[in-house]
Design brief:
Layout: E1 6-10, H1 16-28, E2 33-37, H2 44-53, E3 61-66, H3 72-79, E4 84-88, H4 97-104, E5 113-114, H5 119-134, H6 138-153
Parallel strand pairs: 1-2, 1-3, 3-4, 4-5
Helix pairs in contact: 1-5, 2-3, 5-6
The structure holds 5-O-phosphono-beta-D-ribofuranose (RP5).
5-O-phosphono-beta-D-ribofuranose binds near residues 66, 67, 68 and 89.
Length: about 160
């Protein structure tokens, strides 16, 4: 199997219904990825191992989804020089505002590219990771262009009464 270029990590199994949209986006673009549950709080040693080994294992970009006190993207970024994109998971209590602020408000020096809360953020995390890889992969750049063209073509000009 081809080596994974993108690491999709998440704090919990409960994040997967959101993070699978990042995986599906990468799959549609023909980008190899791996998925792991890595909790900053419950499995801190797994997080250290993952973040510290990612670059040497060939990973180029990490997409990290977490909810609530969402330390996973920031702690991952602290332990790897790879680009890290954070996806705030929509939490029950605060609708993901807690996740968003935890991920976005990094101190200067350790960047995390923060995406939208929930599904949109996961999709865009996949697209951003692909865009980074496309800088040095012309075939992927063409696939990304085609993906955008298909999206543009799918938008109707006139609204329809059809609810489906
Ligand atoms: C975070 O806590 C996870 O990223 C998840 O979004 C949230 C809740 O986790 P569970 O209690 O559902 O496992 O670490």
């Amino acid at each position: 199997m081809a080596e994974a270029l993108v690491g999709i990590i998440m704090g919990s199994q409960s994040d997967w219904p959101t993070m699978r949209h990042a995986a599906e986006t990468l799959e549609a673009l023909g980008v190899t990825f791996e998925t792991r549950i890595v909790s900053a709080h419950r499995t801190p040693d797994r997080l250290c191992d993952y973040a510290k080994s990612a670059r040497d294992r060939g990973i180029k970009v990490i997409i990290a989804g977490a909810g609530g006190a969402a330390h996973l993207p920031g702690m991952t970024a602290a332990m790897t020089p790879l680009p890290v994109f954070g996806v705030p998971i929509e939490s029950k209590a605060l609708k993901g505002m807690d996740s968003l602020l935890s991920i976005a408000q990094m101190p200067g020096g350790i960047p995390v590219g923060t995406l939208a809360i929930g599904k949109s953020g996961a999709i865009n995390g996949g697209l951003l990771a692909a865009a980074v890889l496309a800088l040095t992969d012309p075939a992927l750049a063409r696939r990304l262009d085609a993906w955008r063209s298909r999206q543009t073509a799918s938008v109707a000009e006139i609204p329809s009464d059809d609810e489906t």
